[in-house]
Amino acid sequence: MIKSFSIVSMLLAPLVLSQTFKVEVTRSEAALPEKLLQQSKLNKEFEVAINRFSTYRYTGKFYFGSKASDADLILDTDSDWMLVESQQCDACLPTHRRYNPLTSTTQTPGSNETFILYLDDNFYVGDDYYDTVCVADSSKYCAKDFKFIAVTDINKVTSELAKIDGVVGLGPDDPSNGPSFIAELYNQGVIGKKMFGIQVGFNQKSEMMFGGWDDTWMKTRGENIYFYPQSNQSRWEIELRDLKMKNTSFWEGSKKAVIDSFNDSITFPDAEFQVFKTYIESIDHTIDCDNTKGTCRFNDDCTTKYTKLPQLRIQFGDMNTFAINPKDYLFGQVDGGNRAFCTFLIKKNNKDYVQIGQPFLKNFYAIFDFESGSVGFFLHAYTNSEVNSDGVERVVTPQPPITDDSPSDDKFPIWAIILIVVVLIGGLLALGAVAFIKIRNKRLQQNLSQYNQLEGTKGKAGKTLQ
Hints:
The structure is a single chain. By secondary structure, the chain is of the alpha+beta class. It folds into two domains: 24-215, Beta Barrel (Cathepsin D, subunit A, domain 1); 221-388, Beta Barrel (Cathepsin D, subunit A, domain 1). Helix content is 20%, strand content 32%. The protein contains six helices and 28 strands. The N and C termini lie far apart (94 Å).
């Protein structure tokens, strides 16, 4: 089974594709309320501050090896492997060569195989090592003998993604994925629950909790938490039932949504994007969409459309719809002539599922529960969004979680093969039975004819004797 992750794919070892997302994390217990700090210590959970790396991406502070070499790693909910640029990477920018396996006395070489990892259109080459990795504190919250990739080469030093120290994958703890840092913290007793919660924002502070979630971020005390089960055990994929603006639905059959914190946008498969493109261009003729690039924009400041464009509403596996306001799906920029233009953070992808990225996560605190295999959301304190029960009734056939043993689109289902074999055997048996009956009836007919002839001969002989 080939998995679609935007961050890393392992080509020269077991093949694994990954995707990534960026988040900066720094840790300070002094920043936490005393009550929450005591509760965190009791429940073996801890919270760290998240800082923005770029407009819509974030990183966290990690420490590697016996030297506690610090590195700011992008936090990605849709990837699995952890990678960090090493001092052996000549092509890496000098300021980002953070880890030196040759000077760490706690490291152990891994498989001695070369890994090629892909992040968007960038690739990273590296070797695997086992070493101590800590988060937020150089000695307190650590996973010992954790397996990760030390990057030794990259292909693009001019791109934005070359200006990072590395990535930590926060995907599910599945055997088909790379080593899970969250799972290892749990297995080593650093956190009490195999889960994390994350709150990201643009102008407000952002935080991530390891081992639980922080309900003090709720917009109102007792805010509803909406949990949705995974439909794919190797990524944070949940059921999707609708995408719409006002009463116009863009839903064209895509039944999956992947929570992808690396993605700075919400991206649609081509079928949904075409409906969205037609709709958005029809309600405002100043908006122009490029079907090749899969983007839409208009030449003006974004604020001019805040009150004119409708909310984007997303419906997952129940009747609730989650609202995204125009100010969260529009992104303002200026061109070379210092003229303002505005880009939609609703774009086209080349996948068969919707990617739910930063415009959504800016408004909803997200909970990723490894043990129950579910993702939860609630409105956070800084959002102006809302959740309404105005979804559509849509019958979506439940799909079992995809595993390596599950039939894929390119494999003929086993049950169909068995059915065909049974039908063929039954057909052969039926033909054999018909042939047997015909042969038997023919022999009986021959015997009957011979008997009749014999009886006729006896009759003639009797008459002659008389």
